[in-house]
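Section 3.1 - Work completed
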Amino acid sequence: MTTRSKLVLVRHGETEGNVARILDTQVPGLPLTERGVAQAKAFGAGLLHPPQVLVSSDALRARQTAGHIEAATGTIAQVLDGLFEVQVGELHGRSDPEAHAMFQRIYRGWHLGELDARAPGGESGRDVLARILPVLAGLREEFLSGADEGDVLVVNHGAAMRLVGKALAGVAPPFTTNNHLDNTETIELLPTDDGGWECLRWGRFTPPFTVQAEPSADDPMG
């Protein structure tokens, strides 16, 4: 292994949209709640070492979370294009069971290889991966291809993170679709010598990722 530094995908802190289970995906989106601020501060304070690099999506909740991590660690936060949440089109702003059921049906299909499905006016799974994976590849090339200089933290969003974790490290459904990420939980990816990634952590779980769980009633994204 050429490096022990990791790519750490961090879900942002809690928002009112998460509490109300609103499909809130458009940028800039809702801000952090007081609890979300506390979560972000606690995450930053709990890091054993400052990250080498700290970036976030341009959504307000992600920028605010990264800002609190910056304050705790001293690592300057930067915004990168392309890291925002899955865009759900006409489902944006809805919290009704029908909207959730439609999104979950499409989203689970992506994890099964049906990447061209999309909500009306929204993105396909292929669209999501096409904008996020090149950003992460660039971060790997610039910061994770040499000596162990520290982790790369990317503050982003739950649904996008789980799809990316599945695509990069081969973590398989139904684990990826049933085990949602709580606010400020992480997916930790270690670069491998063959150009791939090994998933070291998915929220509170470590390999092997075989936990059997029913689909969660928690907010599905954000």
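Second construct:
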Amino acid sequence: MRDHKGLNEIASIIRKDIVTMIHGAKSGHPGGSLSAVEILTALYFDEMNIDPTNPKMEDRDRFVLSKGHAAPVLYATLAERGFFDREELNGFRKLGSMLQGHPDMNKIPGVEMSTGSLGQGFSVACGMAMASKLDSAPWNVYVLLGDGEIQEGIVWEAAMSASHYKLDNLIAFLDYNGLQIDGNIEQVMNVNPIEGKFKAFGWNVITIDGHDYDQIFAALDIAKATVGKPTMIIAKTIKGKGISFMENEAKWHGSAPSDSDLQQALLDLGGACRE
């Protein structure tokens, strides 16, 4: 039986760190970081074979944040998991800090790929999964995409490739919160039917509530048992999850909270940020 209470407590800390670091930087992307918290919490604190004391362990599972602008959720997760000191979060987007607006694999322990240009992280994740197959290695590759990100053509080239090469060690999550920087994805550039598209490209497709740990872990179990196909887990989420005035508001895609916004956000999350 997995410790959902413990995971929820970790998720709350991660959300507090997300809004606090973006407030301190006066820039960043809170909405799509907050929507992905349960996914990363499940992966880093239960699912993946990783060792924070040995980030380059040969047989580690790999995670790629393809929607690299959601770096705050990855940074907060890595810090909480022990890959680097939490004090580093205070340097987010500041000159000289290793934690810039997009992840840097050359500077940050635990970051497998420098991402930011939408779609490229997904393509690299496919390459990693292929490398694991060619080496007959035991590790899996996990990748997180945004729903606006799949408007990029490179995503579909990668999806075609992953199916062609039967990369059943590739497990992708789509953070389907329905909003991008310009508004509703269906109005900006409709990507539906997402499930039907990935099925047509030869993927195993599972649709879940991306904030429900039971559904996340059940989907992961199915994905790992699937042979000959990569898996796309379409995680229906809420942009800005956990913060009353941010939820389902596109304007919080890339806006930093003010002092009063931060106070309200921390109250919504159950109190002050951990020192």
